[in-house]
Request: fold
Amino acid sequence: MKELLGFLESKSNLLPGLKFGLPKIPTAKKRASQIPLDLFADSFNSVGDNDLKDLVASLSGLSLVERVVFFEGAFSAAICQDMTRPLEYSRAAELASIAPGHIAGLGLGAGHALSRLGSPADLSPAVADQYLGWLAMDAHGMHEGYFNWYNSVYELAVPEGLCEVSREAFDQGLGRAIWFIASSDWRSIEGLVSRFPISRR
Reply:
């Protein structure tokens, strides 16, 4: 875990002042809830032992939104692979070098990997407040909210040991998950969000 945080911090230092911008969906009719979440699972599974250059080259037919989702899943898989080999972040580093335009996926993938592996997400405030650290905690909240919704949304559970900044980012990601699990229905979203104390909204 310590090595992963150092890796995130080193990549964040290359991105001073960079702000996270949401991709624009091409047509007004398409809603964010329609983005295929199965693409995340497909991209996670596609990393395996495949050549990452070939994998990235095969994405030319995907829309921008689809590529964003794809890299979120791909980085998650690469980091999960690397976390089973301590001190060797070769797969994630290789993917980051091949697709520098999707560096946000590195932070998001780290958050999903923390959830999948059940690792403690004890980011320091200094790391959590950086671009990729914040995205990691956002994705951690999104993953917990979507795949572990009963504990996170109904039981209002929060991982132990999170600093204040990490908790804020976690809750932002949890809100993202609520959008999906409520199928973007504002009444359902309002009902779920109202369960939370005001300090977490």
